[in-house]
Amino acid sequence: MKKFLNKKKIIIIIPLYNDWISAIKLIKKIKRLKINNVFIQILIINDFSKNINYFLNQKKSRLVTGLKIINLKKNFGHDRAIIIGMFYLLKKKVKFDYAITMDSDGEDNPKYLSKIINVSIKNPQKIIVCTRKKRENSLYFKFLYYSHLSILFLFTFKWMNHGGYNSINKENINLLLNHKNIWGNYSAVIETINIKKEYIITNRSKRFDGTSKTNFFKLLMHSFSIMSVFKKKIIFTSFIYISVLNIFFIKSYNFYNIFFLIFPFFFLLSLRESRDWKRFVFKNISYLKKIF
Questions:
Q1: Beta pairing, strands 38-46 & 162-169
Q2: How many CB atoms lie within 10 A of CB 217?
Q3: Residue 79 vs residues 88, 164, 279, 285: alpha-carbon distances, Å
Q4: How far apart are CA 289 and CA 292, in angstroms?
Q5: CA 97, CA 237: separation in Å to the nearest integer?
Q6: DSSP conformational letter for 79
Q7: Are strands 64-72 and 285-290 parallel, antiparallel or unpaired?
Q8: In angstroms, rounded to a whole number, what is the distance separating the alpha carbons of residues 68 and 45?
Q9: Domain 2-229, CATH among 3.40.50.620, 3.90.550.10, 3.30.1300.10, 1.20.1260.10
Q10: Residues of 135-157 as b/e, b for ≥16 C-beta within 10 angstroms?
Q11: What's the whole-model pTM score?
């Protein structure tokens, strides 16, 4: 009993939308991992998917001792599903040491979990962030993705080559959820929040099943959601760039007109944010299903 109590409790939060086959393969791979002195519980955030009975035959293992599914009444999207999962853990006063957030499709490779957990234990007050060194995507997608990173860097001076594969302790989760922009974009807030971070280099892997649901429009919306968190810096940087153009390069055209054209766009980006999102979270949870 004493040995069990000394183990670290890890909760893995996995947002899921109609990707049950990949999620089952992910859970099986996590069960096969050999990680000492921890036990894992998995919390699936079902983002208004269909066919929610896939996990009925799943059983616990030495490492994975719990599996629960939170079913949402509507589709919130990947980042907000993660936030809902975190908020649920805090409001229900669930005891845990670290929460790890990762995708359900296998692109966040579970083989890194052992390293993530070990680094979390050595750096308990830091957010552990998995950066993406390599990606298993088409050249077209890579072009769009790196164009997005380059444009973002041009205006924010941050190279945000990471997503939602992170490890966070309870105290830092509380700080994250109280950030004014958290309902805008989860990964961007992690980059901006004043909490120490430890970066781990990982490779983005292939999906376990099917094809990616990310298309040009979704990537564009994702990019805009990140910009919404950085909008003040982007507005300031845009003003500086336009001023330099106007003063030193082309004096015959007033580039400030462009600035006043794009300013309303950044106002629209801020509409993604919601200061009172905590008030309606539990109203949008249909039920919690415990598998084991």
A1: unpaired
A2: 8
A3: 14, 8, 18, 16
A4: 9
A5: 39
A6: H
A7: antiparallel
A8: 9
A9: 3.90.550.10
A10: bebeeebeebbeebbeebeebbe
A11: 0.88
Length of the chain: 292
Pairing of strands 98-101, 127-135: unpaired
What gap in Å lies between CA 263 and CA 176, rounded to an integer?
27
Q: What is the token pair recorded at 251?
A: 């004096």
Report residue 30 as tokens. Answer: 């996590």
Q: For residue 256, is pLDDT > 70?
A: no
Burial (CB count within 10 angstroms: exposed 0-12, middle 13-18, buried 19+), residue 97: middle
Number of neighbours of residue 125 by Cβ within 10 angstroms = 10
Average pLDDT over residues 159-166: 88
Contacts of 260 (CB under 8 A, 6+ apart): none
Residue 177's Cβ-count burial label (10 Å; 0-12, 13-18, 19+) is middle
Beta bridge partners of 12: 42, 100
| Average pLDDT over every residue of 244-252 | 69
Asked if residues 96 and 10 have their Cβ atoms less than 8 Å apart, the reply is: yes
Please give the Cα distance from 135 to 202 (Å, whole number).
Answer: 10
